[in-house]
Amino acid sequence: xxxxxLTIATGKKLYVDLAVNLARSxxxxxxxxxxxxxxxTDLPHLVExxxxxxxxxxxxxxxxxxxxxSPKLHLDKLAPEGQTLFIDSDCLIFGNxxxxxxRFKGKSVSVVGGYIADGxxxxxxxxxxxxxxxxxxxxxNGGIYYLEKGKMASKxxxxxxxxxxxxxxxxxxxxxxxxxxxVLMALAxxxxxxxxxxxDGTIMSDPQACPGGYEIDVxxxxxxxLNPPKPSPLHQDWYPFEKVEPIVVHFLGYYTQHYPxxxxxxxxxxxxxxxLNWSAKAYAKLxxxxxxRIKNKFKKLFRPIYRVIFGTRKIVKSERIV
Length: 322
What we know:
By secondary structure, the protein is an alpha/beta fold. It has a domain at 3-198: Spore Coat Polysaccharide Biosynthesis Protein SpsA, Chain A (Alpha-Beta Complex). It is built from nine helices and 15 strands. Strand 1, helix 1 and strand 2 form a beta-alpha-beta unit. Helix 1 (13-29) crosses helix 8 (259-272) and helix 8 runs antiparallel to helix 9.
């Protein structure tokens, strides 16, 4: 069975640049692999030339897949034959993904996560489950989707697109004023009894789930992310792990602007162009990492004073980073 990685980069150059970085991290760990990497984009001319040597382009028309998070609801149409692992463009890969394909194999549609039966997750889940006469829905981060091309995958994705039309009526809460693909896919999956791959902390994580800090090295594959244990005020109750080493790190858009991501994509580019030497490493350390570290120290130092003067602003759920 064919094995594919697919990412979507439409609308802005920013997303193409992120997809290029993801593709490079894939290639670093899969140079002798039979897995094919696909970039879906309406801006094919912006894909870096070196990436075209190992990635295939699926060109779509501007707006063809919808806006916001809606393009992810069309993966059944975009996926080639065989097993397809969708990875968000704002991710990096830190190892070989062969084992992940084996773990997903046989699931027509799947994600990495668990289940939620009540509480709030872009809507009151208990009421939504009651409305559709189901016990629960999968809960997950939409940075990864898995599907095997076929009738069942087509049914699940068609259902998700159908549900999107009634997003507000169902009782789902919008994310940045747009329908959230995660809850639509969760409901569609449950209606067709599709099950998630249980999250064990080894597959994907992100800095929001692990606010205790993280260290990454895409070239060696070394990485860790920390959700500090209680009573730390940074502890995330909803995340069931403390220290994890995920093979895919999801930077949630926002964190691609921080030095760990910027440093790693710079070094990755140099590595694949055989230009990774002491001067490149020094540049990354002195001109990418150090300025932000210094800036963060000053912020930490003066934050208490700022809060005394200006107070704090409560972050609402609709502002959640994804």
